[in-house]
Amino acid sequence: MAEETTKHLEVALVAAERVVWEGQAKIVIARTTDGDVGILPGHAPLLGLLQGGTVQVRTVDDEYFVAAAPDGFISVAHDRVSILAENAEMGHDIDLEEAKRALEQAQSTGTDSEDEQEQVRLAEARVRAAEKTS
After folding, report:
1. Is the pLDDT confidence value at 1 over 70?
2. Do residues 81 and 99 both lie within one domain?
């Protein structure tokens, strides 16, 4: 009888200043500029730009989490997934009401400059991650 091996992904979610989460996962789901992508063990190599602001992970222990990670990159090769984002935060660490207030404030400031647009994208991602976590 063939020996059964458990396949998993080695995942690292990294923000500019710190590792937000790393561990083993069964699946990673992210939205890229080319659309939604679900990554399972054995996935073909991939390099993409994140869009939409959230990354979902199902760990090998069947834990589920969502992270806010707007405007970053995702790289997949040899069952290793690297998610690199300027700002990244675990959804369960985000206070939903505070995130909603920050979004309202960012939207009221406007979206004329690239910096203002980035603030709105970050606030939207934080709200989505917190909502999907609760």
Report:
1. no
2. no
